[in-house]
Design brief:
This protein is α+β, with helices and mostly antiparallel strands. The chain contains two helices and four strands. The N and C termini lie far apart (about 145 Å).
Length: about 180
């Protein structure tokens, strides 16, 4: 005879499937939570590393800015020192020229002429003096013009002062070729 199974097998199967589904769902949820936790931890780690790098770069930028300012200050000091050095060298280099110019002024002055004042403005000298005659003033101007240390003089004024002639003239100062001039 045939046997009839009256057990509720469908409900048992459904319960088994339901339990298996719940277990799989719990495992999937645990795995998803683990992945999310791991991802968040990894992103936090990467963020903190990047923030540490940014902080280091900012510190280095501040340090480099300080060095750059120091370099700029040193360059300014260097330029000032070079300007002072050039001025000193120019004065030292012109010292023999000044002496030579005064020597040449005394050489070109004919007898009967003496200087009362000498002023220099740039590359022009203004001479004031006294001469015995007008011819002495003319001779002085010729001698100045013939000298390689002076350009063509310009007479401003000649006036009579007692028996002497007071004169004012300007003369350009020139540097001879031997001293680096262009004459």
């Amino acid at each position: 005879m045939t046997s009839i199974n009256l057990r509720p097998w469908r409900e048992e199967r459904n319960e088994r499937l339901q339990k298996r589904f719940q277990i799989h769902l719990a495992i999937a949820a645990a795995i998803a939570a683990g992945v999310v936790f791991t991802s968040i931890s990894f992103l936090d780690l990467m963020t903190s590393r990047q923030e540490a790098r940014n902080a280091y770069l900012n510190q280095e930028l501040v340090r480099l800015d300080a060095k750059l300012k120091e370099i700029t200050d040193l360059k300014v000091k260097r330029e000032r020192l070079l300007e002072r050095l050039n001025a000193i060298q120019q004065l030292q280099g012109n010292r023999p020229l000044i002496v030579r110019t005064f020597d040449e002024m005394s050489r070109v002055a004919p007898d009967g002429v003496h200087y009362t004042s000498l002023t220099k403005a740039g590359e022009v000298a203004k001479l004031d003096g006294l001469a015995a005659t007008n011819e002495d003033v003319s001779a002085l101007m010729r001698n100045l013009n013939d000298s390689e240390w002076f350009g063509e003089p310009t007479l401003s004024k000649v006036s009579l002062q007692g028996e002497l002639r007071a004169f004012n003239l300007t003369v350009p100062l020139e540097k001879p070729e031997a001293y680096g001039g262009a004459k």
